[in-house]
Design goal:
The chain has strands spanning 152-156, 166-169. By secondary structure, it is largely without helices or strands.
């Protein structure tokens, strides 16, 4: 079979209108479920070639979620993954940040990487193939641009032995 089960087409300009609006008052379960048996190709695609501002996909919540996720990406793959299970591929020669995380957390972690089954790989691998790297910040830049001179800025510790590893304090002491 080929064709569409549901096809929404708009030939007019929808400057501020919505082509498809799903409004649900349910408090549990799944509002939209996309299950596919596809083994190749793309299951769902968002193409926004004319987008100059705004977002192709915006996920927002004003709730005080403590156990849920606004975005959850899960894979049980045991294959030799070559292009990442979640991939961001920026091919333009832009300026600014390719990926930015803004967090207002006071006591949490803005980003946490848990690699608890790691044996021979790396928890974080930064690689550049540039033959012209001439950055004043280096391949890795860890900075506190605030005025605080208290606390720890960077810690690298190979085991749980107190005092082992390298610690850089906010006052510049190592």
């Amino acid at each position: 079979n080929s064709g569409n089960v549901l096809n929404l087409t708009s030939t007019g300009a929808l400057s501020q209108a919505t082509l498809l609006n799903l409004d649900s008052s349910q408090t549990g379960g799944t509002v939209v479920n996309n299950t596919s048996l596809a083994t190749t190709g793309t299951v769902e695609r968002i193409t926004a070639n004319a987008l100059t501002s705004g977002s192709a996909l915006a996920i927002a919540s004003t709730g005080t979620t403590t156990t849920g996720n606004l975005l959850s990406v899960t894979s049980a793959s045991t294959a030799a993954v070559t292009n990442g299970l979640a991939r961001f591929n920026f091919t333009g020669a832009y300026t600014g940040n390719g990926l930015q995380v803004d967090s207002a957390t006071l006591t949490g972690n803005a980003i946490a990487i848990n690699a608890n089954a790691l044996t021979t790989g790396s928890g974080l691998n930064l690689v550049s193939t540039s033959n012209a790297l001439n950055s004043t910040n280096g391949l890795l830049s860890v900075r506190n641009t605030g005025t605080s001179t208290n606390g720890t800025i960077f810690r690298a510790q190979s085991n749980s032995t107190a005092g082992s590893g390298l610690t850089v304090l906010a006052n510049g002491n190592v």
